[in-house]
Design a protein that fits this description.
The strands form 5 sheets. A 4-stranded antiparallel beta sheet has the order 11-12-13-14. It has a 3-stranded antiparallel beta sheet with strand order 1-3-2. The protein has a 3-stranded antiparallel beta sheet with strand order 8-10-9. Helix content is 38%, strand content 20%. Strand 12 and strand 13 form a beta hairpin. With 347 residues, the chain is an alpha+beta fold.
Length: 347
């Protein structure tokens, strides 16, 4: 087995574990990236459907209050275990604006609040957001306070985040220990991950220290394994026995699925460049608005664009090279489309 193929077999076996309960899947993953686009469903639901028995679109939102999880930024924005969330905080509390202080006092006083309720207290002033558009100043204040760890997401109503006071339990772990644990979390979700990518993502935690010496300690202690493939250094959790070949299943993966998240690793292991094109002008798209990588066994051979029209699922398939001609692929593709239809609760 070639180096890249062995590495992708390890990645598939680790990330696409046998479907289990929602709580167990979240605990095993440690983090699920969130994205608001529904095409045909949000990224967090598309990620979980492969890993949770009987998962239906929207289950994460419906069960959020009972799952002991949080929303926050790890290497991207998403859902993470309470234990990992505690490791992230406190982030810096310096430079709080007067509006942020007033918003914080208001949430502490009244409890769970919808952003529109705050607008009644503070008005509807607008500020430029990170994407060059405009947001309500109070909503931006809520987002900043959430990032600092002073507020948490209590729940969502029609996709809108409701905020409440956050309580961070005291943790005796020093900064280096927190950084060590966070590096292991990232390797668990994205591993095998290149050392370059790991250091870049761990840079978010620079308030806890430098990642490079902590990574070297983890490798020396055997908490992480090193792989050199085509002169690229990768690290993973200890794999133990050699993983078996990937099952011959077809799966449509979300653009932000851990298996395909790192685009450089994707191109190295699967041999073609995958790009997320939702924000690319339609005339310049190569594969589609929300093209989902198509995994067949241990090969990613193409992509699927799926949409719902008048209650019916429509799936368009594209291939990097030729469409497989064997009957196994044809039947497995039909099975995956049927699983997607059930997940969306469609006819």
């Amino acid at each position: 087995m070639s180096g890249p193929r062995r590495l992708r077999t390890i990645a598939i076996a680790h990330s696409l574990f046998p479907p289990t309960t929602l709580k167990t899947a979240i605990r095993r993953l440690g983090f699920i990236q969130a994205d608001p686009i529904r095409s045909p469903a949000r990224a967090q639901d598309l990620i979980l459907r492969h890993r949770v028995k009987g998962y239906l679109s929207g289950d994460l939102d419906r069960r959020y209050p009972a799952l002991d999880i949080e929303e926050d930024v790890l290497y991207a924005y998403g859902f993470l275990t309470r234990q990992t969330w505690q490791l992230l905080h406190p982030r810096s509390l310096r430079g709080m604006s007067s509006l942020e202080k007033k918003v914080l006092e208001t949430v502490f006083k009244f409890g769970v609040m919808h952003p529109t309720e705050l607008q009644d207290h503070f008005g509807k002033a607008r500020v430029v957001n990170d994407w060059g558009g405009y947001s309500k100043a109070t909503t931006r204040a809520l987002e900043h306070l959430h990032y600092r760890g002073l507020l948490r997401i209590a729940r969502r109503e029609n996709g809108v985040r409701l905020y409440e006071r956050a309580v961070i339990s005291s943790d005796s772990s020093n900064a280096e220990e927190r950084l060590r644990k966070l590096i292991l979390v990232i390797v668990n979700i994205l591993g095998p991950i290149s050392e370059r990518s790991l250091r870049a993502n761990a840079a978010r935690f620079r308030y806890l220290g430098r990642a490079r010496p902590v990574l070297q300690k983890l490798l020396k202690a055997g908490a992480l394994e090193s792989h050199i493939i085509d002169e690229i250094g990768y690290v993973s959790l200890p794999s133990g026995t050699r993983p078996a070949s990937a099952p011959r299943l077809v799966r449509f993966l979300a653009p932000f699925d851990p298996l395909v998240w790192d685009r450089q690793r994707f191109e190295h292991l699967w041999g073609w460049p995958y790009r997320f094109e939702a924000y690319t002008p339609a005339s310049k798209r190569v594969r589609g608005y929300y093209a989902m990588p198509l995994l067949w066994g241990d090969e990613i051979i193409g992509w699927a664009n799926a949409g719902v029209d008048t209650g019916r699922l429509k799936v368009d398939i594209g291939f990097v090279d030729k469409r497989p001609t064997d009957s196994d692929f044809r039947s497995e593709l039909e099975n995956e489309i049927e699983r997607l239809r059930g997940f969306l609760q469609l006819r």
